[in-house]
């Protein structure tokens, strides 16, 4: 009985290994992975991700579109929390599919409606690359 049971566990192990491998392929980046460097236009000019972060931790918020109510409140709250992020050596960036020009209008809206100063770059990703 023992050899059959060991063989069954080995089959199960192989199946589990295949599933984990598939998950890694399907999900791209995972916690603990090093994010590839990139350069992107932003509300503060061209950003080189690694240069921007320096030796800091980073948080990258992704938003589907400028002027959406939830995204506006999230970015407003994030701006208000900047001193807390600074204490923890964390830099924030946001990403939206709209242009830098559209971001300028959105930033004004965020600052007005959320009573804050947007103090981090919002990346423009018009071509979604």
Q: Strands of the biggest beta sheet: in what spatial order?
A: 3-4-5
Give the averaged pLDDT, no decimals.
Answer: 83
Largest sheet: 3 strands, parallel
Task: Using the alpha-carbon principal axes, give the shape.
Answer: globular
Query: H/E series, N to C?
Result: HEEHEHHEHE
Number of H- or I-type helical stretches: 5
Structure summary, number of beta strands: 5
Structural class: alpha/beta
Task: Provide a compact summary of the structure.
The protein is an alpha/beta fold and 129 residues long.
What is the secondary structure topology, with strand pairs?
Layout: H1 2-27, E1 39-40, E2 47-48, H2 49-53, E3 57-63, H3 69-80, H4 82-87, E4 90-96, H5 100-114, E5 122-124
Parallel strand pairs: 3-4, 4-5
Antiparallel strand pairs: 1-2
Can you give a write-up of this model?
The chain has a 3-stranded parallel sheet. Strands 1-2 form a two-stranded antiparallel sheet. Helix 3 (69-80) crosses helix 5. Strand 1 (39-40) and strand 2 form a beta hairpin. The chain has helices at residues 2-27, 49-53, 69-80, 82-87, 100-114; strands at 39-40, 47-48, 57-63, 90-96, 122-124. It is α/β, with parallel strands linked by helices and 129 residues long. It contains 5 helices and 5 strands, in the order H-E-E-H-E-H-H-E-H-E. It starts with a helix and ends in a 5-residue tail after the last strand. The longest helix has 26 residues, at 2-27.
